[in-house]
Amino acid sequence: MSGPGGNGDVGAATGWLIRGVRPLGGEPADIVIEGSLITEVAKAGQPGLAEGRELAVCEADGLIALPGLVDLHTHLREPGREDAETVASGTAAAALGGYTVVHAMANTEPVADTAGVVEQVWRLGREAGHCDVQPVGAVTAGLDGRQLAELGAMADSAASVRVFSDDGRCVSDATLMRRALEYVKAFDGVIAQHAQEPRLTEGAQLNEGEISARLGLTGWPAVAEEAIIARDCLLAAHVGSALHVCHVSTAGSVEIIRWAKSKGWQVTAEVTPHHLLLTDDLAAGYDPIYKVNPPLRTAADVAALREGLADGTIDCVATDHAPHPSESKESEWSIASFGMTGLETALRVVHEAMVNTGLLDWSGVADRMSVRPAAIGRLSRASGHGGQVATGSQANLVLYDPAQISTVDPATHASRSRNTPFAGMKLPGRVIATFLRGRPTVLDGRLVR
Amino acid sequence: MNRHLISAADLSAGEAVAILDTAEELARLAERPIPKLPTLRGRTVVNLFYEDSTRTRISFEAAAKRLSADVINFSAKGSSVAKGESLKDTALTLQAMGADAVVIRHSASGAPHRLAEWVKGSVVNAGDGTHEHPTQALLDAFTMRRRLGKLDGLRVAIVGDILHSRVARSNVWLLRTLGAEVTLVAPPTLLPVAVDTWPCLVSYDFSAVLPACDVVMMLRVQHERMTQAFFPSVREYSRRYGLDSDRIALLPPHAIVMHPGPMNRGVEIAADVADSPRSTIVEQVTNGVAVRMAVLYLLLGGSTGSDQAAARAVEAAERVGAAL
Q: Nearest residue on chain A to B173, judged by CA atoms?
């Protein structure tokens, strides 16, 4: 695109005319944005559109328009680990990846287990302005799995928390998990579980299987994830509550979730981009850039996850963006930190793993990366997240060039951390522009300050 | 040969045999009045030990010194490692000091792979976590070949905690490369889940395996396994998977008994078995020096690295010895 078109002065403009873009990959259209709203979507090239109005023009021939992406699972690290990421740097990365809102996980220092901390994170997000930040509250005080955090206070705070998670740790105590599921019904909350049976995964380093056995790394068995998911589905059914399963990574987990959904239970699930593309054999050189929790699994698991995402068993893609400073990864495998960055590559990875394989079309991508995660996150209609690319919708949009292909270079990333497993990989696509309620946060692939 | 020796699985049959043949030549040196070669004079070998292993460290130290290398022992205990220096920074320090080879022992699987990315010299794996211990497998193969005259077609049982054993992993792949047939014997709890993908057989019945063995290699049972529910009790383990004099009677007469040490006498191996003529346990220690000399010789000795060159070097040393 040519940026603010012609000699258009953005300062004087009252909105945007996006020309020739293909909404959800469909027929080319011209989109008019005025204020925070999409005021017109018309067949491309029709004369007289937006005549007489001062609009900045965005030439978007060949680009695809999707609703702004929604991430249910982001680690922004602030407060506490500002060396790895801040709300400002993490949301900048999110905007560059096409996101208009991220859910900030609770495992900060201090933990987001009080109204004070979630409001602080929420406010930092508003100040940074690159995208909305919706804090996730901890399920248990200090993430220690013993006592419920003040879930109601977080729900009633300015941050209006609806998603609660001890992510990074599993709420392994069955009674506590039951209570949490029950309690949040009072304010339409959802418990997002990090499914990992702790005793089965003591010291676990890598998917338990052929590769872990050969490398002499302690195995992280699939059953440790599947056993918790099965238990939690049954608990959610028993108390009539909503369960969301974080970062599903095994074929067996997909089977269990498919079964739970067939019963009509309120179970939703997410999968990360890396689990859709990468496998455990990448660990062969012991480079901890591939160390993540849950671990990379086998090609058969990847195939099942893709199929589950395609048929809707898995509701959405969530990044589990987990920035770490370089020293946390430049070490022996077993002492390195778990986690990978993902915000700036997620859409491209989904393009490669799901679109280029014919498993999802672009409207499917919009559903799995925007519409459904916004619904699971209980994001308000007023926020405009997870809306349509249609007249009258909030103008949360990402413009994506599917024709580009380039090598991932972490040095160009806005995240403070460089721990991307996709470094050096050729991936399709490029995010060209992101609009948050009518305001561009990214133009020409660069952050708007 | 590669620049490093990190995994026994990386060795081709030709490379492995070259190491064993070179070790044979170098072993002759031990019989000379001055058991020393000038080959690695001026070269620096660092023993970087993050785990206590006096026997392995001394073996590498003796090997390097017999080749006239300068040896620096860098023990993690009492060094800056204890103060939290990273492996990378230690590697850069050793690199700056001009280490030609770094022999590393580390509790983390894969630490030698990481080290090899950060130093220019050769990396020799002296045992990494539960991954590999390639020089142990080479000295085991050397010992088998000396005792039994061949490796091809040998039937070798490796018995004990396979799951956590770097010795087992190195031996499975090296012996396979050299044509031996390996059977792993262990309680199912001490076998990796994917052991069926390994190039070997598996049995839970020790006594049934013994009559068809040329070699029985017993592995040490670590004390911490005894409290982690891998088996009900030491006594039961010993009854089912220990090598005592009753089980020894099931072996063919020529079969040998090996153990990488240190032994738990009365647990995996009975004292009279350990001390019997079938036992090669003391020879394994002796052979370890020759094999580690061969590895350092071939990694650092430059283009002349071959068993013929080693033989010539030993002969030259013999002439010098005679002249003295």
A: A214
Structure tokens at B223: 């004390």
Give φ, ψ of B5 to 5 degrees.
-120, 95
Q: Which residues of A touch B88 (CB under 8 A)?
A: 330-331
Q: How far apart are CA B30 and CA B7, in angstroms?
A: 27
Tally of residues, chain A: 449
Residue A40's identity, in one-letter code, is: E
Q: With 70 as the cut, is the pLDDT of residue B81 above it?
A: no
**Domains (range + CATH), chain B:** 8-132+288-323 (3.40.50.1370), 134-283 (3.40.50.1370)
CATH of span A15-65+390-447: 2.30.40.10
Spatial separation of the C-alpha atoms in residues B199 and B6, rounded to whole Å: 19
DSSP helix/strand/coil, A17: strand
Q: What is the DSSP letter of A14?
A: S
User: Is the distance from CB of A85 to CB of A419 less than 8 angstroms?
Assistant: no
Buried b (16+ CB within 10 A) or exposed e, A14-52: ebbbbbbbbbbbeebbbbbbbebbbbbbeebeeeebbee
Q: Quick one: CATH architecture of A68-383? A: Alpha-Beta Barrel (3.20)
Distance CA B258, CA B53 (A): 19
| Ranges in chain A annotated CATH 2.30.40.10 | 15-65+390-447
Burial call B42-59: b when 16+ CB within 10 Å, e when fewer = ebbbbbbbbbebeebbeb
Residues of B designated catalytic: 55-56, 83, 105, 133
d(CA B42, CA A315): 64
- The span from the CA of A357 to the CA of A414, in Å, is 29
* End-to-end alpha carbon distance in chain B: 35
Chain A positions in Cβ-Cβ contact with residue B192 (cut-off 8 Å):
212-213, 219
Contact list in A for residue B87 (CB cut-off 8 A) is 331-332
Is there a contact between B169 and A216 if contact means CB atoms under 8 Å apart?
A: yes
- Cβ atoms within 10 Å, residue B272: 12
pLDDT, tens digit (0-9, with 9 covering 90-100), for A29-70: 999 999 999 999 999 988 888 788 889 999 999 999 999 999
Question: Do B184 and B168 form a contact (C-beta atoms < 8 A)?
Answer: yes
The H or E element that residue A151 is part of is: helix A151-156
Instruction: Give span(s): CATH 3.20.20.140, chain A.
Output: 68-383
pLDDT single digits (tens) A144-196: 999 999 999 999 999 999 999 999 999 999 999 999 999 999 999 999 999 99
A441 C-beta neighbours (distance < 10 Å), count: 25
Enumerate the β-bridge partners of residue B201.
Answer: B183
Run of H or E residues at A182? helix A174-183
In our burial notation (b when 16+ CB lie closer than 10 A, e otherwise), range A160-198 reads: bbbbbbbbbbbbbeeebbbbbbbbbeeeebbbbbbbbbe
> What is the model's pLDDT at position B307?
67
pTM of the model: 0.94
CB A317 within 8 A of CB A306: no
Residue from A71, A280, A315, A320 carrying the catalytic annotation: A320
Return the HEC string of chain B.
CCCCECCHHHCCHHHHHHHHHHHHHHHHHHHCCCCCCCCCCCCEEEEEECCCCHHHHHHHHHHHHHCCCEEEEEECCCCHHHHCCCHHHHHHHHHHCCCCEEEEEECCCCHHHHHHHHCCCEEEEEEECCCECHHHHHHHHHHHHHHHCCCCCCEEEEECCCCCCHHHHHHHHHHHHCCCEEEEECCHHHCCCCHHHCCCEEECCHHHHHHHCCEEEECCCCHHHHHCCCCCCHHHHHHHHCECHHHHCCCCCCCEEECCCCCCECCCECHHHHCCCCECHHHHHHHHHHHHHHHHHHHHCHHHCCHHHHHHHHHHHHHHHHHC
